[in-house]
Amino acid sequence: MKEETARTVANIALGAAAIGAAVVVLRVPALRRLAAGLARTAVTTGIPAWVANEVRRSWADSGRGRRSAI
């Protein structure tokens, strides 16, 4: 089997597994609540942290240093 064919087969298998897992999560109420809670946590913690890091990095890349205390 060529490497390209193996990658295609692996991608199809992973896609099918992901779709199957999504169906199970959507059908089972407890798993649906768990997934919603995890998504909420990711949005409320991950996005603000990412924005803060981007602002900090942009400030550093702009060439401005820390402001000196007066």
Summarize the structure.
With 70 residues, this protein is an all-alpha fold. The protein has helices at residues 3-27, 29-61.
Characterization of the model:
The protein has 70 residues and is mainly α. The chain has one domain (3-61). Helix content is 83%, strand content 0%. It is built from two helices and no strands. It has helices spanning 3-27, 29-61. Helix 1 crosses helix 2 (29-61). The longest helix is centred in the middle third of the chain and has 33 residues, at 29-61. The chain is flat and about 55 Å long. The mean pLDDT is 91.
Basic shape: flat
What structural category do the secondary elements indicate?
Answer: mainly alpha
Main sheet characteristics: none
DSSP E strands, number: 0
Q: In percent, how helical is the residue content? A: over 70%
Mean pLDDT: 91
Distance between the termini: 70 Å
β content, as a range? Answer: under 5%
Low-confidence stretches: none
Number of helices: 2
Q: Name the helix and strand elements from N-terminus to C-terminus, one letter apiece.
A: HH
Rg is 22 Å
Q: How many separate domains?
A: 1
